[in-house]
Amino acid sequence: MPSAADALAVVQQHYPDADPTDLQTGALLDLLQEAFGLPPSQWLLADSLCADEVNSLEYPPRASQMVGVFHLGGLDGFPHAGLTGMAAFGGHVPDGGGVVIYHAPHIGVSSDGQLGGIRRIGQERVTACCGAARAAVTRLLSDAIVAGDPSPLDYQQGTIEQILLPYATRIRSASAPLKEATEVIADAITERIDTLVEQTKIPARWLIRFGAILINGDPAMGSFSAPRRLLCTDLVTGETSDLLPALRGRLPARSVPT
Ligand SMILES: [Zn+2]
Questions:
Q1: Alpha carbon of 100 to those of 59, 69, 195, 227: distances in Å?
Q2: Are 111 and 220 within 8 A, CB to CB?
Q3: What is the CA(165)–ligand 1 centre distance, in A?
Q4: pLDDT tens digits along 147-186
Q5: Averaged over 63-92, what is the pLDDT?
Q6: Residue 106 C-alpha to ligand 1 middle, in angstroms?
Q7: Distance, CA 144 to ligand 1 centroid (Å)?
Q8: Residues sharing a CB contact under 8 Å with residue 233, sequence separation 6 or more, in sequence order
Q9: Ligand 1 centroid to residue 89 C-alpha, Å
Q10: What is the 4 CA–ligand 1 centroid distance (Å)?
């Protein structure tokens, strides 16, 4: 079993700015308490993460101090719940409280440093993580994806494939195609979250949008998060500020911003 430091070192070979999710969540809750005077119980947590059970198994315990979780995601974290999902959770915000939306595609890093796979509970072999992204990239690299509306029988996977299709050249030429595809999906998730936010009336003062790459390890390693943005929007004034430097300042110095 790797030590926590060893596990983090393995993950940071691929994502130098990653931190353990529970440590990062604790830092976020402290930051939100100090900046807005709101304890964790005043924040409604929504996430947009892959349906993969590993994300439940490796969910940061400290996140349970917030109200939630409302799940907006589906395969590889795209917010498939759409406008109706956004409107539903908007009605669940504690009075006088705020909303945190954590959105991320995910990717595995095994204890021996393999990118794109993990060992799962009860298994010795390494299996794909994210399996949906891996399947989509495999089809992309073999020119098997055709532009068009996704099939109703496999709508979420079809959506992921359509997101990747315009970036075929970029992904094909990357040294790690699955890692590159994960960045493409992260950008698509961010764009969709922002569109959904623009079109939803959220009855809260503060909206936190925390975008990241979520990294799953083998069971003994836990999960890690490489931030891509941490924005706070005052929903009364419309003003948005960048909280990521403040979050990084609360995390151990070993974290290397990229
Ligand atoms: Zn997945």
A1: 15, 10, 16, 14
A2: yes
A3: 18
A4: 999 999 999 999 999 999 999 999 999 999 999 999 999 9
A5: 94
A6: 6
A7: 20
A8: 197, 206, 207, 208, 209, 239, 240
A9: 23
A10: 23
* Cα of 110 from ligand 1 centre, angstroms: 15
The answer to whether residue 257 scores a pLDDT higher than 60 is no
CA of residue 2 to ligand 1 center, whole Å: 24
Cross-strand bridge partners of residue 212: 227
Q: Can you tell me the distance from the alpha carbon of 83 to that of 69, in angstroms, rounded to the nearest whole number? A: 17
Biggest CA–CA distance in the chain, Å, is: 53
Task: Kindly give the distance from the C-alpha atom of residue 49 to the centroid of ligand 1, in angstroms, as a whole number.
Answer: 8
Tens of pLDDT, residue by residue over 193-206, are: 999 999 999 999 99
Please work out, in degrees rounded to the nearest 5, the angle formed at the alpha carbon of residue 253 by the alpha carbons of 37 and 214: 75
Judge residue 24's burial from the number of C-beta atoms within 10 Å of its C-beta, 0-12 exposed, 13-18 middle, 19 or more buried. Answer: buried
